[in-house]
UniProtKB/TrEMBL annotation:
Classification of source organism: Eukaryota, Fungi, Dikarya, Basidiomycota, Agaricomycotina
Protein name: Fungal-type protein kinase domain-containing protein
All copies of domain Fungal-type protein kinase, residue ranges: 32-200
Highest rank taxon of the organism: Eukaryota
Pfam family for this entry, one: Pkinase_fungal
Species of the source: Amanita thiersii Skay4041
């Protein structure tokens, strides 16, 4: 990720730091498949350890992605525990189950994920996380849960809070419960973070 340009004009007398929601605007994020995304506004940010909370950023891709997926994309950047299965793999498993069971209605209610990757950002035994594991173990026998950087690119969705009429909200709520029941019964998955911000 190209970060040095965030405050490139900060030394001029009339320059102001960017608003937080615009912190990444104009920067680029190069994915592992060499696709480059242009970042825009931050849509949501998890209040967690500084620099390690999940962040969802509007983005646009190259012309071939725009033609195929549209121009409204988001990059979800998170730092899940290293032992967990990547979110993109979970989504793909759900898609495969729905196709195998010929329950294709589910596919229309899943987020359109375009790309996912998990980045090894702390290599070897000398990295920061390995040193933390060793230090915490030595000082107080406190376990440290190692994490990895995960990037998930999806089509941008609108939160359910945008629906304000009963005519549109009622069927959406019905479909949400139907999908969560299907995930639990058929895919053996339980979503553990159901909130108005996560229901699209």
């Amino acid at each position: 990720m190209d970060l040095p340009h965030i405050y490139s004009n900060i030394h001029s007398s009339d320059a102001q730091p960017p608003r937080f929601s615009e912190l990444f605007r104009g920067l680029t994020l190069q994915l592992g498949n060499e696709t480059t995304l242009e970042l825009k506004s931050i849509l949501s940010r998890q209040h967690a350890l500084l620099g390690r909370g999940t962040c969802v950023i509007q983005a646009s891709g190259p012309e071939d992605w725009t033609n195929k997926y549209g121009s409204n994309l988001v990059a979800k950047i998170s730092f899940p525990p290293a032992i967990t299965k990547p979110e993109g793999e979970i989504l793909q498993a759900i898609i495969d189950i729905a196709k195998k069971k010929k329950q294709l209605w589910v596919l229309n209610r899943l987020p359109d994920y375009i790309h996912h990757e998990r980045v090894e950002w702390d290599h070897g035994n000398s990295g920061l996380q390995k040193r933390l594991v060793s230090l915490l173990q030595e000082l107080s026998n406190i376990p440290y849960e190692e994490r990895k950087l995960e990037i998930l690119v999806l089509r941008e969705l609108s939160p359910i809070t945008n629906l304000v009429s009963t005519k549109t909200l009622a069927p959406a709520i019905r479909d949400i419960f139907k999908c969560y029941r299907w995930l639990y019964n058929e895919a053996k998955l339980m979503h553990r973070d159901v909130s108005t911000e996560n229901i699209m």
